[in-house]
Amino acid sequence: MIEPSERLGATMNNMIGEAKFKQTYQKILDAKNTLLTIHGRPDGDAISSLCILIELLENKQKIFLAYSQDVIPRSYFYLPHTEKITNDKGQINFDDFDLIVALDCGSLARTGLVKEISSHRTDQFIIEFDHHPLIDDYADISNRYPELASTTEVLYHFLKTNEIAINKNYANCILTGLLTDTGNFLFPVTSDRAISIASEMLLYGAKFPQIIESTQRNKSLGAMRLWGHTLSNLIVNKKYNIAITVVTKDDIEKNNVSDEELESLSNFISNLHDVKAILVLQELSDNEIKGSLRATQSNLDVSKLARILGGGGHVKAAGFKINGQLTRRDDKWKII
User: Fold this and answer.
1) 177: helix, strand or coil
2) Paired strand residues for 292
3) Cα(first)–Cα(last) distance of the chain, in Å?
4) Across 163-180, average pLDDT
5) What domain range includes position 43?
6) If you ran DSSP here, which 8-state letter would residue 193 be given?
7) What SS3 class is residue 55?
């Protein structure tokens, strides 16, 4: 069995509570029926985290249901157990579960189970694994560590603390979460600890080329056309030195672009030089707009603006949703 370096282990022992991870594991083992959930429009970290818990529960022969509000993108079908994830909420009888585990959700609103969790029975236990800053406190046990690069990194330490042997399935999931949430280790959230864990996952058999091929080299012709159109519309607010662009519903429908391809657009534009931050505004419906914020300078916290607008996220990457419509007047975009 391959062990992380002694220095890495000592650092993490000081940073996280091993007792909490052990308590969490005991609750998982004791549960009769577990419901797993992740946030809507799931990304690589959320899907990988869900697959890690499915692997664990399958190996322990536990009864569970894995739920995603939205369909898992095909590019992540290489991960283990994706075929066991349902997006049919009608399959869920919430009263059947004595344990609910939320993964990479960031807040109660993103679990897709706001009503159910808010009014859960006293004998139903709530656990979360997350690496986003705290927005609301809804879990009985919160394994939340914003200083870590991904939720799969949180789960790596959970597995290690409980002496759960890491196999190839775990390794592929952990590495996928790390790569997708750090932009292949290009984002500021990348740490030497994350890179050390990634190296360890390669030794356990994680397929780095397949992960890169599936998660990065998977853009359709429509997506590339949309990216080009969106980049051509990019403007810079010189007062605040923020680059802003817009993606309309017509743009999305005309190019038949997936949610996953849209999500990666913000990360790509964040490579822009000489601006403090970027903002991508995307029309979700007739009266809803999603904003994706990325900081490009180390001294800027975009999560503060996201929280003011009802969202949240990390210092360098955050988002929000607001009501309104995008309209173009005098060659300028406005929200009405």
Assistant:
1) helix
2) 280, 319
3) 58
4) 97
5) 6-215
6) H
7) helix
